Amino acid sequence: MTDLDSLAYTAEHEWVALSGAIATVGITDYAADKLGDVVYVDLPAVGAAVTADAVCGEIESTKSVGELYAPLTGTVVEVNDAAVDDPSLVNSAPFGEGWLLRIEVSGTADGLLDRAAYAALTGGDA
Amino acid sequence: MSDSVPPPEAPPRYTVLRDRHEALGASFTDFGGWMMPVRYTSDLAEHHAVRTAAGLFDISHMAELWVHDGRAADFLDYALAGRVSSMPVGRAKYSLVLAEDGGIVDDVIVYRTGTSYFLVVANAGNRDAVAAALTSRRERWGHAQAFLDGPPRGDGAAVLGADAPRIEDVTDQVALLAVQGPRAQEIVAAADGVEITGTPLADVGNYAWTEGRFAGVPLFVARTGYTGEDGFELLVENARAGELWDALRAAGAPRGLVPAGLAARDTLRLEAGMPLYGHELSLDVRPAQAGLGRVVALDKEDFVGKAGLANAVPDAPVLVGLIAEGRRAGRAGYRVYDASGGAEPVGEITSGALGPTIGHPIAMAYVPPALSVPGTLLAIDVRGTRIPATVTALPFYRRTK
To answer: Any idea what DSSP says for residue B277?
Structure first.
């Protein structure tokens, strides 16, 4: 089980696991729950440049479409093909097998929320 | 009309089953002024359960109005688009409340429960509009009938004449539960405490109803629904709704029944090609545009909307089904283009999703009649990308009997 306190978060309901310059990104269980069953994940290509707070992908559920925002600026180094092939992973393991992409961060990783701040944002439901 | 209709600014309400939904971990959404379960666990699992076994829906947000006594059948022939008077007791009929100009105020199901006794089930969001339409139409119709019956007697009570029916909004007093799916009959029959005293369930036809008792109170059981599957809708007084929910779940659990929310209900009805008011139907849509021309009994002498429908709108857009490849679905409000890459949209999607049973993106959309022929290739603008889509006959899904 992922230690949720060790992750960073965004106001757009993404989580970020930083390991050196590599940030692994997914959406939170709160976001997955709000979306409902995810049926389609559209991710940027490996090698694509992404900009913090800019849309870099889409997550569609049966009922709605959510935009995926890049939490940090950098270059996409890996995407989770398993989640593209089986989007239900985003619901079943949002912090694990349902991760979405890895970014090599350029510059500093700032502007993220800690667990307490994110929990406060979601009214304690997260 | 009941005094208990909340003012429009009233906060969303919950049904009497709120505690059960919360205990099941439901997410809620505001629908027609009611906080309703949108899903319990997985909307896809709930959808598939209804197609393969059964789902249990709380649809107590729907509005229930009794229209009874006087010449209720003749009145409803005037107030609604269809011919209600020729329907036998025991049957139900899909109908429309039309505006004077032929636009759609609501779509309803009318159940004939007695010679002069009818249950009208309307959409939650249109409760007030339907109640107001029926009430004002009763005034007009009642005055006309009273006049035909003879000169007014001068006492206020008789001004509508004996022909005018009573209209009672009982939405706040009753709960409506739907058991939908191939195992629905088996589950209702097995539910502890449900006793059918009218036509046996097995003999109740589609769009027919029977009656019974549950925990000492009357139970109304109709073979109607909004999923494209066989199923029943059960009307019971609020005080017994929780027990009925529990009994249906208990009987259903070993048979694959799961509680199902509005998300599944929406994909189920979309696959079944059933319109949703506010999406496919509105005051700006005439029945024929939505493929509901058959619902209107144009040969009736008079009914609200008849004069308006006489003024045909040439080339009015018509509702079609669209089916696409891949997994990206068009959604309500997305533009539809012709296949040639034209800059101007030719239509708009009213509902769309990745159809869980169909396995393809599906949508309903209004397009010009010339582009409505099944097989016509069109394109949907999905957030900046045009996805090819083919016009297809509705429904997308039809159950095998």
So the answer is: B
CB contact under 8 A, B43 and A37: yes
Residue B36 has a CB neighbour count (10 Å cut-off) of: 28
d(CA B329, CA B354): 5
For chain A, the domain total comes to 1
Neighbours of B323 (CB within 10 A): 15
Strands B92-98 and B209-214: unpaired
Q: What is the CATH number of the domain that holds A33?
A: 2.40.50.100
CB contact under 8 A, B267 and A40: no
| Inter-chain touch B44–A62, beta carbons under 8 Å | yes
Q: What residues in A contact B325, CB-CB < 8 Å?
A: none
> Could you read off the pLDDT of B367-397 as tens digits, one per residue?
999 999 999 999 999 989 999 999 999 999 9
Res B150: pLDDT: 67
Per cent of chain B over pLDDT 90 is 88
- ipTM for the complex shown: 0.83
CA-based nearest distance A60→chain B, Å: 8
What's the half-sphere exposure (Cβ side, CA atoms, 13 Å) at A25?
32
Q: What backbone torsions phi and psi does residue B343 show, to the nearest 5 degrees?
A: -80, -30
Q: Domain ranges in chain B?
A: 13-62+171-271, 64-169, 314-392
Instruction: Out of 3.40.50.1000, 3.40.50.10420, 3.30.70.1400, 3.40.50.40, select the CATH number for domain B64-169.
Output: 3.30.70.1400
> pLDDT tens digits for B49-94?
999 999 999 999 999 999 999 999 999 999 999 999 999 999 999 9
Is A36 in CB contact (< 8 Å) with chain B? Answer: yes
Rounded to a whole number of angstroms, the distance from the CA of B192 to the nearest CA of chain A is 33
Whole-number Å distance between alpha carbons of B158 and B149 = 11
Q: How confident is the model at residue B2 (pLDDT cuts 50, 70, 90)?
A: very low
**What DSSP state is assigned to residue B102?**
S
Per residue in B10-30, pLDDT (tens digit) is: 788 999 999 999 999 999 999
Residue B253: name the closest of B186, B161, B316, B208 by CA.
B186
* Whether the model pTM is above 0.90: yes
CATH of domain B13-62+171-271: 3.30.1360.120
Q: Residue B383: its chain A contacts at CB < 8 A?
A: 58, 65
> Whole-angstrom Cα distance, residue B259 to residue B248?
10
Element (H, E) at B78: helix B72-79
- Of the candidate CATH numbers 3.40.50.2300, 3.40.50.300, 3.40.50.970, 2.40.30.110, the domain formed by B314-392 belongs to 2.40.30.110
Which of A62, A88, A92 to mutate to probe the B interface, most B CBs <10 Å? A62
Other Cβ atoms within 10 Å of B196 Cβ, number = 18
Q: How confident is residue B7, by pLDDT bands cut at 50, 70 and 90?
A: low
